[in-house]
TrEMBL record:
Record region (Disordered): 27-63
Organism: Paenibacillus cisolokensis
Entry annotated with the keyword Transcription: no
InterPro entries: Bact_solute-bd_prot1 (IPR050490)
Taxonomy of the source species: Bacteria, Bacillati, Bacillota, Bacilli, Bacillales
SUPFAM superfamilies tied to this protein: Periplasmic binding protein-like II
Compositional bias (Polar residues): 27-53
Identification of the protein by name: ABC transporter peptide-binding protein YtcQ
Residues that span the membrane, as ranges: none
Keywords associated with the record: Signal
Gene3D superfamilies: Periplasmic binding protein-like II
């Protein structure tokens, strides 16, 4: 196998879901260290203060104006004189030629341009497999570790803070072939309980271990937790099984690295143990007979109708935010769909939040995305080192300077956005509530297509972050060495 082929294999099997990262190193609080430069004063961004250390090139001079062909995902054309575009052009002595490609035909239209040799200097690439493909086709060019350290020190620091391994997925041989993104990782699926049911069957604390969970689920089936005099409730349906597998440290639908080899988790001995437990629960009628078709009966996929309608009392269905508690009074945050609908069906229902149950060997976990983003920015093959370095400086300033980021992503306070009632969160004004209006002014993802979690947290009510940590982040939750094919990623993750 050639080196390139084996690398592709690695990229394709790259970890999307590393389950041991539930709490990881990602800070949930804003980092005020980063927003030190104010763009209004025209001060130089952090990286610009550094001199070129390239031995083989003349010292760079930002006095030379460069035209940058710029392609991010665009919801609409950007005005030639958009304020943030002008601002960045002045700060960095560049002219942006911002490409607008109808997003519904992006692949086709971009493909035609690329094959005609029209290549943007910076472009979004939507998978690591595409990155490698574009490199092979001579469409993109990479950058070195030295260039990274010199021109994007702030971005490097930001990525490293969440997970230094993120860089691995953008590395090909001895160079980086894309700028990686940081995904919103770290939190597990919700482990939701009908707390009123627990109380009704005499359990006064949310179960922690698999044994305690089992006891509660049996009672949900056998002790009339909804007190209607009928045996019409079950412990759980299909989503709760994720937690049972987690209690044995596996997830059967993922690959696992075992003794240095990639093996399908479905055949591991731990999976067999988990399946034996589930078979017993099935035999004892604890799991709904309809578990095969799932607990969602159509409509919005994230709703657990079985939970909402009081048929089961335990679920991990949907994403964790679909179980967000009602924080309307505290932060203005609306409850998650499952919470809202459960209370609509039964206003006396109480929802409790547990952790993924701890199994016989101390393992626990469920699906917990890591911080490795799936989207990259890549430098077009026509971008000479001078252009590449200028772009890196721009990127580093945008992601290292809170005020600049705020101005470029959100725009001007009072015009493009206002603070929410909590005084922390930000809300688009009516005039700029639509993507194309934001694009016209060069906002949103025109210049900052990737998430900047630290800055986003600065605009998030601390109480919301606290609640997320309390309810959905379980340090150590994980399936050891679980891997999932990146290419198979879907909405259920
Ligand atoms: Ca009943």
């Amino acid at each position: 196998m050639s080196m390139k082929a084996s690398k592709w294999w690695f990229v394709c099997l790259a970890v999307v879901l590393v389950f041991s990262l539930a709490a990881c190193s990602g800070s949930k609080t804003g980092n005020s260290e980063q927003g030190t430069n104010t763009p209004e004063t025209g001060s130089t961004p952090p990286a610009e203060n550094q001199t070129s250390g390239e031995e083989n090139e003349p010292a760079e001079d930002d006095q030379k104006q460069l035209t940058l062909e710029w392609l991010t995902y665009q919801y609409g054309p950007v005005d030639e004189n958009a304020a943030v575009k002008k601002k960045l052009e002045e700060m960095f002595n560049v002219k942006f030629n911002i490409w607008y490609i109808d997003v519904t035909k992006r692949e086709e239209l971009l493909g035609a341009k690329l094959s005609a040799g029209e290549i943007p200097d910076l472009m979004t690439v939507y998978s690591s497999a595409d990155l490698v493909k574009f490199l092979d086709q001579g469409i993109i060019t990479g950058y070195t570790e030295e260039e990274l350290n010199q021109y994007m020190p702030n971005y490097k620091k930001l990525v490293d803070k969440y997970d230094p391994n993120i860089w691995k997925y953008a590395k090909f041989g001895d160079q980086y072939i894309g700028i990686p993104s940081i995904a919103d990782g770290g939190a597990s699926l919700a482990t939701a309980w009908r707390k009123d049911w627990l109380e009704n069957v005499g359990i006064d604390k949310i179960p922690v271990t698999l044994e305690e969970t089992e006891e509660a689920l049996y009672k949900f089936r056998n002790e009339d937790p909804d007190k209607n005099g009928k045996k019409d409730t079950y412990g759980m349906s299909v989503s709760g099984m994720t937690n049972v597998y987690g209690a044995y440290g596996v997830y059967p639908e993922f690959w696992t690295v075992r003794d240095g080899k990639m093996v399908w988790s479905g055949i591991l001995p731990e999976t067999k143990q988990a399946l034996a437990k589930l078979a017993q629960w099935k035999k004892d009628d604890i799991i709904t007979p309809e578990w095969v078709v799932g607990e969602n009966q159509g409509g919005y996929w994230a709703v657990s109708h079985d939970f909402v309608n009081g048929k089961i009392g335990y679920s991990t269905h949907g994403m964790n935010y679909h179980w967000n508690p009602d924080l309307t009074k505290e932060t203005g945050g609306a409850p998650g769909d499952n919470v809202k609908l459960t209370l609509e069906v039964n206003p006396d229902a109480k929802i409790g939040y547990g952790q993924p149950p701890i199994g016989p060997d101390g393992k626990f976990g469920n699906i917990t995305p890591d911080f490795v983003g799936t989207t990259y920015m890549a430098f077009g093959a026509n971008a000479d080192p001078e252009k590449k370095h200028r772009i890196m400086k721009i990127w580093d300033a945008l992601y290292g300077d809170f005020d600049l980021w705020l101005a470029v992503k959100w725009g001007e306070e009072g015009v493009h956005w206002e603070h929410g009632p909590d005084g922390v969160s930000v809300i688009r004004t009516e005039a700029y509530s639509q993507n194309d209006a934001q694009a016209k002014d060069g906002l949103n993802i025109t210049f900052v297509p990737f998430d900047q979690p630290d800055f986003r947290y600065q605009l998030t009510n601390p109480r919301s972050l606290e609640v997320r940590d309390e309810l959905f982040v379980w340090e150590g939750a994980g399936y050891s060495d679980a891997k999932k094919r990146r290419c198979l990623r879907n909405r259920s993750i």
